[in-house]
Predict the 3D structure of the following.
Amino acid sequence: MAHDHHDHQGHDGHDPRHAHPHHDHTDVDWEQMGPLLETQAELFTPLYEHAMAWLAKRQTEPGLVVDVGSGPGVVACLFADTFPGARIVAVDGSAPLLARAQARAERLGVADRFGTLVGELPDVLDELDYPADLLWAGRSLHHLGDQRAALAAFADRLTHGGTLALQEGGLPARYLPRDLGFGRPGLQARLDALEAQWFATMRADLPGSVTETEDWPALLTAAGLRPTGTRTFLLDLPAPTTDRARAYVAAHLTRLRDGVGEALDADDRATLDRLLDPDDKASVHHRPDVFVLAAQTVYTAVRTK
């Protein structure tokens, strides 16, 4: 289970080219994907820092924090900063990504209270040494076929009074003005629609896939937890943006072109190709109006029994 930041993700969450790194696909070279996932997660750090400040008021001084679907460990290491008295365990299906997470913890000086656990979710959580005070599932749940059963398994690994923080939903990210100055206005909205179709197919094809109404507080309640809050966090990197943000936008649009580009009409494909041409001054590599605006929602619930 790996974050595609992006967003999972993130980071705005989905990767049609690779059927999204949250799910364990043997055709994905995780060592190759690792640096990209790490860079994207770093870009979203302001959003995660706001989310963690909010969580810290809900679950004070946890002893064990578990990041479910941690990817290369950027978020897990942020938890180590947020909760200096906690042990952090990064859980993922990819050993190469967890190796990056461990190396990151060592670089940041938190390796003495940082561990990793490799295996398929949710069953691998049975290998935790003791229950979690805070379990974070950041855009990883939707890559498990039976989300209701997975939430019940997550809940079972919490201490009495422990919190499950579920990051799902939000709004599609935006990077470009509606009217680009060429092509038909509204390209990103049409890409969103294709990505939503891809996502529905991805969900349907997961092993043991079960259709659920995505009422997350209701599903958390069904897992035996008491919902305690919902909040949406914003990443707002306005134009003119940084080189790192620009590179993220280019990488994201490239994955979309590779994943759903064939479903675009000829005009939109030509527009997308132009946006990704580094030799074109109207591309995202050069244009001054590129930005990153993303909204991601976190739901919290507490184990009371």
